[in-house]
Amino acid sequence: MGQKIQYAGLALIIIAAIILIISYFAGWNNINAVNVGSFAAMVVGLIVYIVGGKRSLNE
């Protein structure tokens, strides 16, 4: 179960990074909701990845 949680966190980080890259090339630099939302998703993904890693070590 911890491995699946870890993969979900990694996927969230990658999706948020792709959104940031697309927003840069699309010219959405001034839309704070996109920038802050992607950054927050990256932080949440990192936390989920760490928690999933700790759970997989306990199993």
Key features of this structure:
single chain; about 60 residues; mainly alpha; 2 helices; elongated
Task: Kindly summarize this structure in a few lines.
The chain has 59 residues and is mainly alpha-helical. Helix content is 88%, strand content 0%.
Beta-strand share of residues: under 5%
Cα(first) to Cα(last) distance is 8 Å
Helical content stands at over 70%
Mean pLDDT equals 92
What is the global morphology?
Answer: elongated
How many alpha or pi helices?
Answer: 2
How many strand elements? 0
Largest sheet: none
The assembly state of the depicted protein chains is single chain
User: What Rg, in angstroms, do the CA atoms define?
Assistant: 14 Å
Task: Describe the secondary structure blueprint for this structure.
Layout (H helix, E strand, L loop, with lengths): L1 H25 L5 H27 L1
What does this structure look like?
This protein is mainly alpha-helical and 59 residues long. Helix content is 88%, strand content 0%. The chain has two helices and no strands. Helix 1 runs antiparallel to helix 2 (32-58). The longest helix has 27 residues, at 32-58. The protein is elongated and about 45 Å long. The model has no long low-confidence stretch (mean pLDDT 92).
